[in-house]
Amino acid sequence: MTDAVDRLAVAERAARAGAEVAAEGFRSGIDVETKTGKTDVVTEADRAAQRRVIEVVTEEYPDDAIVGEEEDELKAVPDEGDAWIIDPIDGTNNYVRDVPVWTTSVAAVRDGDPVAAVNDCPALGDRFVAGPEGTRLNGESVSVSDRTDPEAFAVAPTIWWDFDHREEYAAVCREIVERFGDMRRFGCAQVTLGMVAAGSLEGTVTDVVPNPWDTVAGVYMVRQAGGVVTDLDGNPWRHDSEGLVASNGEAHDELLAAVRDVA
Description:
The protein has 7 helices and 14 strands. The protein has helices spanning 2-25, 44-60, 92-96, 166-179, 189-198, 216-224, 252-260, and strands at residues 33-34, 41-42, 65-68, 82-90, 103-110, 113-121, 126-131, 134-137, 140-142, 154-157, 182-183, 203-206, 228-230, 244-247. Strand 7 and strand 8 form a beta hairpin.
């Protein structure tokens, strides 16, 4: 317990430091580059923020593995040992469009399982924190929504579909619209998962294989707030799972059905 609390404190410091770097470049006319596709964008702020997060983490844990979206860090989570998962700016497409829904995400994992997580959202003024004692938003304890009626649910599709899979995206959206009360899309998986943890959404779904830096921190937040996160078969979600279905635990099967038939 003590080690997890210590790691949470470092995760908070690291996420805050990285978020401060990212915030300096927000709405500043920063140059935008593309990676593997026209919507897969990156900026120098992404790289600088990741370097700052790593600096803070390695001051305390110099021997731990680092999994990061940018540059030459690991791209998969080790199954054994201590590691840190970093997304310096989750929601870069929002960031470069001056939309404030983005976050600096830091998660500490041991043997592949998260023990601490922080999503720092400076443009929103929000900080989601999850540790052994639950999930907090801006210092206040939060829990998943207590709604039970799917027709009152707000559900978000998340993790973007490539152009060759847009029919699947359209099918998932149709299922959400037909099964649930309302639909949202925020363009930032970590913030979306935080909203499920805080009760602002009843669920979020995708049928693609997500990257760990887009998901691990937020998944831990949902679980520590009393929610459920599974793969497409209903098994407990892991960092290497196909698909992701997160909910408040009510009507989870209905959420699974919304993606299972189109995967």
